[in-house]
Amino acid sequence: PPDHAELDYPQLLDTAMAAARREAGRGHVAGYIPALASEDPEAFGMALATVDGEVFGVGDWERPFSVQSISKLFSLALVLAAGGDGLWSGVGREPSGTPFNSLVQLETEHGIPRNPFINAGALVVTDRLQSLTGDAAAHVLDFLRTEAGNPAIAVDAAVAASEAEHGHRNAALAHFIASHGNLHNEVDDVLREYFAHCSIAASCRDLALAGRFLARHGLRADGSRMLSRSEAKRINAVMLTCGTYDAAGEFAFRVGLPAKSGVGGGVLAVLPGRAALCAWSPALDRAGNSVAAVAALDAFTTASGLSVF
Ligand code: GLN
């Protein structure tokens, strides 16, 4: 791959934004809760944070949006950082091939979700983080604020309330998992913490900075070791295979980077050893991934020649 110095990141981001703009009108903003449905479908932003702390951005890269399932990446990392390896007996590492909120596999797999990035798996991760820390969502929030250097990052209370009000499917998942003894906390507490971390509002800039520990093989912004190289590699691997739900194959095919998406329209991707990137645009495809953000990342890796392959 080309050297850092040879890459013109601002120009690559402009190329990516131009590709995103060509997707205007495609996809639909998440409508499963009213609090998200009012987003402008054509908003777009993208940021790149290098391993040594330089940050570049285009479009609405400093505008906060609902991080949703991108938070699942941070809750997983925080469980592993707190020594919660036992997590892997309660959640698998295989792509599900079913939508992110599906219930079907839980019955045949005895309450052990396929991976930590579908809702069922993320509920187990939140449960373990709750056991380890006593306040799972506050830990996710604190991590984001510290890594991004932005104390203004916060839980959007209206989104969290909307999640709870329309949360029957997540509640069904959590109760089913609990029926198999795979939740250690009260279902209501797990759901509250899960909805809270999904409802954090942060920008592309914030998320690119907060995702750098995965590009830095487990090192936090202050240089302290959060995860072993092996744990960081594993999280990147699960992102590549499961981070964009049942479109992970298509995403690897087009973009070729470990990534985690959310129904708020964000996609956080990792260039190991080099940078973390976040693209955002609210209109989603059928799998729940942002149409324009995926197009932007596709254009970025194609134009730069950078990917994990
Ligand atoms: N809060 C959303 C949910 O639980 C997160 C889903 C997502 O971003 N894919 O349905």
Automatic annotation (TrEMBL):
Gene3D superfamilies noted in UniProt: DD-peptidase/beta-lactamase superfamily (3.40.710.10)
Known catalytic reactions: L-glutamine + H2O = L-glutamate + NH4(+)
Gene Ontology MF terms in the entry: glutaminase activity
Binding residues annotated for substrate, in chain numbering: S69, N119, E163, N170, Y194, Y245, V263
Record SUPFAM superfamilies: beta-lactamase/transpeptidase-like
Keyword Acetylation: yes
Tree of life domain: Bacteria
Pfam families assigned to the protein according to its UniProt record, in alphabetical order: Glutaminase (PF04960)
Keywords assigned by UniProt, alphabetized: Acetylation, Hydrolase
EC numbers, comma separated: 3.5.1.2
PANTHER family for the chain: GLUTAMINASE
Protein family per UniProt: Belongs to the glutaminase family.
Binding partners and assembly: Homotetramer.
Designated name of the protein: Glutaminase
Organism: Streptacidiphilus monticola
